[in-house]
Amino acid sequence: LQISGYLNLLANTIDNFTHGLAVAASFLVSRKVGFLTTMAILLHEIPHEVGDFAILLRAGFDRWSAAKMQLSTALGGILGACFAICAQSPKGAGEMVAWILPFTSGGFLYIALVNVVPDLLEEKNPWNSLQQILLLCTGITVMVLLSLT
User: Labelling 5: which of 42, 89, 96, 98 has CA 20 to 30 A away?
Assistant: First the structure.
């Protein structure tokens, strides 16, 4: 098996840990924030996990092993949620959320921009760049509208 498969599993476990942190911390703020965060992460994770599964197949894992390994990385999310809950202050979620939500949000923004901006800069067709920027703005608009409800 290629080392890239194992590196992908490690990265996916860390990614799922931060997702668990974000979901638990969001629910400690409010149910609304928790549900919005959960939906955003689910929408991100579905295509992400399919891509990771394909990476594992290319690295030499058979389908069953790749599926089991992908499922095992989900434990990182559970550990992240447990960590966030255990880090909660007896005074309430305020102190804990003061560092967890900015940390996870910054990580998500960094990863998104590292993946999106280089593709936009390399795009030769201005119409494709415009479409990507419009879709990015649409996503931001949807998040703002959901936060207002």
Answer: 42
